[in-house]
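Contributing new records

If you add data, match the layout below exactly. Sequence lines come first and carry their own label; structure lines follow with theirs. Keep one chain per record. Anything else will be rejected by the validation script.
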Amino acid sequence: MIYLDNSATTYPKPECVYKALDFANRNIAFNAGRGQYIKALEASDYISEARKQVSSFINCDSKCVTFLSSATESLNLIINGLQISDGDNVYISPFEHNAIVRPLYNLQRKINFNIFMIPFFQQNWNVDIIKLKNMFAINNPKAVLISSISNVTGYKLPYSLIFNESKKFKAVNILDCAQSYGILDVNKKDVDIVVFAGHKTLYASFGIAGFINLTNYKLDIVKSGGNGSDSLNHYMPENYYERYEAGSPNIVAIYGLIESCKWLKTNNILAKEEELTNYLINQLKKIKKVKIYAPDNVDLFGIVSINIDGYSPDDVSNILSDEFEICTRSGFHCSPFIHEFIGSIAESGTVRISLGAFNTKEEIDVLISALNTL
């Protein structure tokens, strides 16, 4: 099997992660913070270590790291905790995933606020900064939510340019790094909250993700319960992660995350994925029937969306799977606005090819050979 669906979840994981998950299940699967016996205290220490590992990628205080089950849960907690009121203005880009879009639109059913689309030029995908400045001036932003990497196209969004403008209006700037954290550097300037997903570019397992509250922005509490501390208090504690972490922590996944973070720091995954992405694009350009959804001037990372003349995306992915054992993803990829922007709605979406640390040029060659048979 050739696995090219790494933007859904990276696979395989490093061997050290598999070993860590097995070790944790057998030896430290205890409820951290709920007991004074040695194993419970040991589990708590590992959670502290995991916070340090995650925070080290962005060089911030480890207390800024909140652990939750997924990036989707994190974004739901953040969006519903932003204290959005009637008449407020929230901005997103056309590249956003439903983990951002759906919580916002669901909240809009309850609160009469405005959702604005950040303007991008379709020809080159640059931000229309003049238009955006005017939009911000007329409809001051309460919050801006942007992905660092498009999960459909692999486009590196110019979030720093946008956040620099929105911060002039004291907006809360939220950066979704589900497709990049641990590999691409984060420019912290003007960023309030960063979201990460353990099972993606951090190469850990499902069940561990979270957000990094760089400015300690006080989100409203939308999830509450026991966290092992201050138990006589009827309300959630006020301090950083203790304010947002309710319920038993997933110590098994967290221990695996520690090992995946260590592994990332000893392997240059950035250089490898950049090399593979460029190689893939160059090989795809040699096939006349292939349409790549990106302008030539755009720098893509790890993800490329294509279509093949005469075939639907589902047909292509099914053929690649059934005849060549190549795993890709077809359709709209949980991103509702990008397909209008890139013009792929009539084609029923795209075929998404997403690379990871364990892919090779030889696997890409097999993919290209398979596409040439269509």
